[in-house]
Amino acid sequence: MPETDKHSIEKTVYELSSTGRSTNLMPECDVPETELPVDLLREDLHLSELSELDVVRHFIHLSQRNFSVDGGFYPLGSCTMKYNPKVNEVCARLEGFAQSHPLQRDDTVQGNLALMFELQEWLKEIGGFAAVSLQPTAGAQGELTALLMMRAYFRDRGETGRTQILIPDSAHGTNPASTTMAGFEALEIPSDEHGNLDLAALRTVCDVSVAGLMITNPNTLGLFERDIETIVQCVHDCGGLVYGDGANMNALAGVVRPGDLGIDIMHYNLHKTFGTPHGGGGPGSGPLGVSEKLADYLPGPMVRQTNNTEKLQFSFSLFTPEKTIGRMNSHFGSFGVFVRAYAYILQHGAEGLKQNALHAVLNANYLRELLRSVYPLSHDRICMHEFVLQGKIEGSSVRAVDISKRLLDYDFHPPTTYFPLIVSEALMIEPTETENKQTLDAFAEALKVIAREATDNPEILHTAPHTMPVGRLDEVRAARQLKLRGD
Length: 487
Ligand SMILES: *Cc1c(COP(=O)(O)O)cnc(C)c1O
Hints:
By secondary structure, this protein is of the alpha/beta class. It has helices spanning 3-10, 13-16, 52-64, 86-92, 95-98, 110-127, 139-156, 174-181, 199-205, 228-237, 270-273, 335-371, 400-409, 437-456, 458-462, 475-480; strands spanning 131-133, 164-168, 185-189, 210-216, 241-246, 265-268, 288-290, 302-308, 313-319, 387-390, 416-417, 426-429.
């Protein structure tokens, strides 16, 4: 990279500023100048002065430093960083969708409502649920919504003594966090030696104080909960509800319907399973699917179809379920994400979704086989769409973080590192269905080279990355002493 370019990225726009430079392409003023009626101009407001080209180059260079699915292999386990078909973006940008306003009258946005209605119907079918609300704008918000619904459900039944939510120790951190936010108490259930929820431990805690269980299937070890039906039965027998964390639907869509397994309520992550880009904070969408008994508590607005058979017309209108817990968002949720998910499901169809799930599982197992002789596996079982390795090499001081940082030097985004918490030195790898064999082979090869380096030259791993614009960061200090401003 030429020195000047490098220079311009290392600096902030404020440091690049040069008095008198501007992007001002306005024509000469041809009306009389007047004073502003109020004092809006602040003397102390330091704005950077740059030419348009300076600004464009600065931000383009910054953007090129981002790693993205469009830029390379991104095996971030539990996040499902799969390819996002570009046709989804084209659809989301169609004027009728992108330019509509959330406060428009229903009869002027019938197309939007039809899309939402069909998406609700498709998600019902995919998950095996009686009703779906598209309201929540993230998986975590779906969890919170579901827990608030569970609370309302038990309140109506006079079962206010149900204060506990059972959560496996392999669960995503949002599960206990949502539980606490909803006013429940989180009780951790251990995993057994096969990486599944410990059934015996579950049985000892299932009683009338339990409001429900939150379970991720396949779990965050990438393993199918083999006893899922017994687990569900056990929780139902003590009067509790079962929440499914649907973040891992990429392994199941078109193959297994969580509703058929007895799951009462589940969030989907449209931004993981249904072809919507994510990362960097959003936007996401976490619709909720529920069984019949919880349908009345869903947050609105939801969309329904009214059939005018005389005129052979359909129309779509908004409604709010009778015992709703209220709104979770000011308007409809992440509408642009609905369009992408709709386009994705439409493009693939039932058979395509199933093939995607099967390929995601195949790809994960292929990688697992390539790597199992090099790194210890957390559990030696056929995996679903992801698997967990341990970033340990016998006789070497190298840790998972060193391996992840070194992968950056080989142009790969690292896997999820140090999660799930129950595996020491965890490296959680999710290749997704959209990567080809050459990419998977190249990734496995890089991890094999790194394993050799761990023995021959551990220092190169401890000090990695070496090819990135910034080297190893002090992540603890960065989190504790936030510096969010350039000045
Ligand atoms: C991503 C994820 C969540 C949370 O979803 P967000 O949309 O990021 O809020 C919950 N559980 C699991 C297992 C996840 O992977």
